[in-house]
C-alpha cells in the first residue's frame, strides 16, 4: 500500500510540474525539462498544497483548495528557480 501512495505522489508531482511549466514557460511538450518540472511539482505541491489546505482549515484532507495550491506552489517554485538560474548565468 505504501508503494501505491509513493507512486501516486510522484504522478501528482509530474502532473502539477507539467501544468506549472506550461503556465510559466509556455511552449510545447518537447520543451519541458522533465527533472526540473517534476521537482517543482513535488516541492510546490508539498508547500503550496499543504499550506493552503491548512490555511483553509481542511487539514490533510484532499480538497480542491489543496489541489489549486499545489499548482500555485509549483508555479512559484519555477519562477524562483528561473530567477536563480538567470542570476547565475550573468
TrEMBL record:
Give the transmembrane region(s).
Answer: 6-24, 36-55, 67-84
Indicate the secretion signal residues: none
Gene Ontology cellular component list: plasma membrane
One Pfam match:
Transgly_assoc
Keywords (A to Z) from UniProt: Cell membrane, Membrane, Transmembrane, Transmembrane helix
Main location per UniProt? membrane
What is this entry's stated membrane topology? Multi-pass membrane protein
Q: Does the keyword Acyltransferase apply?
A: no
Task: Please state where this protein is localized.
Answer: Cell membrane
* Transmembrane helix recorded as keyword: yes
Family membership noted in the UniProt record: Belongs to the UPF0410 family.
What is the name of the protein in this document?
Answer: GlsB/YeaQ/YmgE family stress response membrane protein
Q: What is the lineage of its organism?
A: Bacteria, Bacillati, Actinomycetota, Actinomycetes, Micromonosporales
Amino acid at each position: 500500500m505504501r508503494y501505491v501512495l509513493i507512486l501516486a505522489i510522484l504522478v501528482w508531482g509530474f502532473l502539477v510540474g507539467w501544468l506549472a511549466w506550461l503556465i510559466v514557460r509556455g511552449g510545447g511538450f518537447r520543451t519541458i525539462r522533465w527533472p526540473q518540472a517534476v521537482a517543482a511539482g513535488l516541492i510546490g505541491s508539498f508547500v503550496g498544497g499543504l499550506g493552503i489546505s491548512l490555511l483553509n482549515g481542511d487539514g490533510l484532507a484532499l480538497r480542491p483548495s489543496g489541489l489549486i495550491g499545489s499548482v500555485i506552489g509549483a508555479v512559484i517554485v519555477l519562477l524562483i528557480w528561473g530567477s536563480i538560474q538567470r542570476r547565475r548565468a550573468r
